[in-house]
Amino acid sequence: MERVVVGGGPLGRDQVVAVARGLAGVEVAPAALAAVAATRAHVERLADAPEPTYGVSTGFGALAIRHIPRERRTALQRSLIRSHAAGAGPEVEPEVVRAMALLRLKTLASGRTGVRPDTVRALAAVLDAGIVPVVHEHGSLGCSGDLAPLSAVALALMGEGQVRVDGVLTPAADALAAAGVEPVVLAEKEGLALVNGTDGMLGMLALATADLHRLLDTADLTAAMSVEALLGTDRVFADDLQALRPHPGQALSAARIRAFLAGSPIVQSHRGPDCTRVQDAYSLRCAPQVHGAARDTLTHAELVADRELAAAVDNPVVLPDGRVESNGNFHGAPVAYVLDFLAIPVADVAGMAERRTDRMLDAARSHGLPPFLAADPGVDSGHMIAQYTQAGVVSELKRLAVPASVDSIPSSAMQEDHVSMGWSAARKLRRALDGLTTVLAVELLTAARALDLRAPLTPGPATGAAVDLLRRTVPGPGPDRHLAPEIAAAEALVRSGALLDATRRFL
């Protein structure tokens, strides 16, 4: 298994995804542990000082005015984690929990948080052992960190609460013992350092960027299949036309659609002077403009993610000269904004795909295809209700595109009087990506059926390879049959990347 070294340089988004999805193990660089030890010496000095230091010898949030005596500070840290592990609702996906724990480990290993090396080692060991703390859906306002979710991770590190090991719900103490990890007894500053970061929302952003690359690549393919099935032209995707509006994402999508349509007998069949169609509908002709704008939005989101991955988010932080300074870097606004931003093109790309699907089902607009692609229209309904499913999902995606980050509910006795809601933005983006997967799967099913119905004309090599892959699990046109399993099979091809793998050689 691949190993990701934390503290040996900036983490990449691909490394976050690899650890989150269980494809890579974790270790901490020795130089990082040495830096952590040096910073901890500053915290120990401040812990002995008569002057109070926030997070070291005081309470937290609105209770920061109370100085805590040394003999009560272990109880302070323990109480912080227990009280803040106040999540509710369904369990969060294991990949999100692992991404969040990895990103908190990254910040701890930066040497700016003041934790002990043993605490860093313990968190790395939990990740490496595949122990996944149970984290609940609700509990983060995206400011002062993803508090309840990160507290659930810290609680497991203390040997308390519940975790999952290979999917099995297990007491944290038992899981740690089985993995040979000693539960952590938190010292000064450590409780706060474990929970005061934007790691949950950032982890979900890193995962979303990887998934959205795959989905936008898939949208280019399904759009090409629909253009071909609807007897559309490929001339509008020409490089010189796209260069007149030099957006990089648009150029890339247009090039991909051109490549997918290359060598298509169906496209060639209506290229002559007897073709009376002057312009295709926007959902066909403008696919590169919409898909490309989504790609450029994704590029901006990746820039923000990469900056965050280079950050050390905690409050207070321990600086190299030993100062412990409060700051506002835990505020999730930079991440929240792009999480919300991405939900907009997700909804729009899905909406365009649904319009192409509907066009293939309408005999008045499909240029010779049977109504709803039915084998016996009237007796059979074909893909009529599959488009309903698409429409329902697209409607939901529009609701999910409403930003969460414009909301703020003050908390902590008005000490935390403006919050980002970035965790909520991340959660709804994950649901939106699932919805886009479904929409593209239905377009894939419908376009493949339409291409089959163009026989004896055949699709091009790339689109034909997509149809051939689908036909391994989904039969071709015929009388009505149970469609839900076929949609699920198409979703699996989109989600796994198998559909792209089957067509990648044509690009």
What do you see in this structure?
The chain is mainly alpha-helical. The chain has 2 domains: 196 residues, Fumarase/aspartase (N-terminal domain) (Fumarase C, Chain B, domain 1); 261 residues, Up-down Bundle (Fumarase C, Chain A, domain 2), CATH 1.20.200.10. 55% of the residues lie in helices and 6% in strands. It contains 20 helices and 9 strands. A hairpin with a 2-residue loop joins β6 and β7. The longest helix is centred in the last third of the chain and has 32 residues. The model has no long low-confidence stretch (mean pLDDT 94).
Structural topology:
Blueprint: E1 2-6, H1 13-20, E2 24-28, H2 30-48, H3 73-84, E3 88-91, H4 94-108, H5 117-128, E4 131-133, E5 136-138, H6 147-157, E6 162-165, E7 168-171, H7 172-179, H8 190-195, H9 199-229, H10 239-242, H11 248-261, H12 265-269, H13 282-285, H14 287-309, E8 317-318, E9 324-325, H15 333-361, H16 384-400, H17 422-453, H18 461-470, H19 484-496, H20 498-503
Parallel strand pairs: 1-2
Antiparallel strand pairs: 3-5, 4-6, 6-7, 8-9
Helix pairs in contact: 1-4, 1-9, 3-6, 4-5, 4-9, 9-11, 9-14, 9-15, 9-17, 11-14, 14-15, 15-16, 15-17, 16-17, 17-18, 17-19
GO biological process, one term: L-histidine catabolic process to glutamate and formate
Organism: Actinokineospora bangkokensis
Pathway: Amino-acid degradation; L-histidine degradation into L-glutamate; N-formimidoyl-L-glutamate from L-histidine: step 1/3
